[in-house]
Structures are given as structure tokens and as C-alpha cells.
Amino acid sequence: MQYEFITIEGNIGAGKTTLAKALSEHYNARLLLEAFADNPFLPKFYEKPKQFAFPLELFFMAERYKQLQELLLQKNLFQQLTITDYLFKKSLLFAKVTLSEDEFKLYQRLFDIVQQQLVQPQLLIYLHAPVRKLQENIRKRQRSYEQNIPDDYLLSLQETYLQYIRQLPIPVLLVDASGADFINHNAHLKIIQDALEREYEPGIHHINL
């Protein structure tokens, strides 16, 4: 494995955590998963988005920063690869969709200060799936506060993600995850593993399962 830091990203319900766990087990990698359940504002946000968007995003940014700083400053001689199921930049991308203009300006100032202190991934795996598939996956995992997420919210996040990854200065493996099943279909996971054995120039590289 030529990479030391790989991040998996995608919309809500795309399968980020499932793939991150599978790859970390295969490569004996350090695994960093987003502690979304620790955010006390998440259920409140889905009930009253405008009221709780700012504390929600601020809490996520603080927790993501703490996780990444603690993990990436550690040296582990037996695990050379680190895999995460989120980009730190995710904080800003979600804030762009959820916050008002004035709130976003303030949030961005805080984000820019914090981001300078973190190591960035060498490669990004982006799982892309249609909203229909995302909603199907969201229903299957049965988190009560997620069951009424509007389609237009998922579409807005998807457009924001795609705009962002187009200008990333690192390789991005854009995976068509519309039919992905990394738990029951080993062939899907094998395609990702094989893709990680190759070298890539910066930019988007399409991977079909």
C-alpha cells in the first residue's frame, strides 16, 4: 500500500462506514469513524433545522478536529495506513447547505483557522449513489431521526460534494455505489482493493462496481 492516509466520503447513507471498516480490516489499518451519535444536536436539527444548524455544525467541527488531531499525531509502527470515513472539509460542505449566509461566514472563519493544523488525506474514495439508493440505505439502518430527511436536502449535499471534489488537488476515486454491497458481495470490495494498488494523478478517476 503506497498510501498512508485514505478518506472515504459520500452523501448520507452512501456506505462510507461500511467500506471503511472492510478496508481497515483487509489492510490492518488504523480506523477513524465519525462519532455522529455523540452530537446532541443531531435529532434536534432534523426537527428544527434553522434553529439547531449552527450548534450542530460547530459541534461536528470540534469533534472531527479533536479526533483527527489525536489520531494523526500518533505514530504506530504496526499500522502504517490510516482510513477515515469522513473528510474534515465535510464540516464546511454541510455548513454551506445548512447555515444562513451570516452564520456560514462566521463558521468559515473558524474553519479556516482550525484546518491549517490538520494533515490532509493522500487519496479520497467518494461513494456516489442516487437519492433513491441513499433513502433506501437510510431506512435500512433505522435511525429514527433520519427517517424524514427530504430528498432535496440530499440533492443539495450531493451537488456540494461534487463541486468540491472536482477541484481537489489529490486523486479522487469516484465510485458508482448505486448497487454497492460491500458486506455481501466480496467482488465489490475486491474492485476497490485492486483500485488502491494503482497510482493515480490528481483528479477524478471513475470506478464501476
Structural features, described:
There is one protein chain. The chain is 49% helix and 14% strand. With 209 residues, the protein is an alpha/beta fold. It has a single domain, classed as 3-Layer(aba) Sandwich (Rossmann fold), CATH 3.40.50.300. Strand 5 (171-176), helix 8 (186-195) and strand 6 (203-208) form a beta-alpha-beta unit. Helix 3 (49-72) runs antiparallel to helix 4, helix 4 packs antiparallel against helix 5 and helix 4 (90-98) crosses helix 7. The protein is globular, with a radius of gyration of 17 Å.
* Total number of strands: 6
Second-tier CATH architecture: 3-Layer(aba) Sandwich
Output mean pLDDT: 93
CATH homologous superfamily heading: P-loop containing nucleotide triphosphate hydrolases
The tally of domains stands at: 1
Helix fraction bin: 40-55%
Order of helices and strands: EHEHHEHHEHHEHE
Binned strand content:
5-15%
CATH topology: Rossmann fold
Instruction: Tell me the major beta sheet.
Output: 6 strands, parallel
Distance between the termini: 21 Å
Q: What keyword list fits this structure?
A:
209 residues, 6-stranded parallel sheet, single chain, 49% helix, alpha/beta
Gist of the model:
49% of the residues lie in helices and 14% in strands. The protein has helices spanning 16-27, 42-47, 49-72, 90-98, 101-115, 131-141, 151-165, 186-195; strands at 5-10, 30-32, 82-84, 123-128, 171-176, 203-208. Helix 8 (186-195) links the parallel strand 5 (171-176) and strand 6 (203-208).
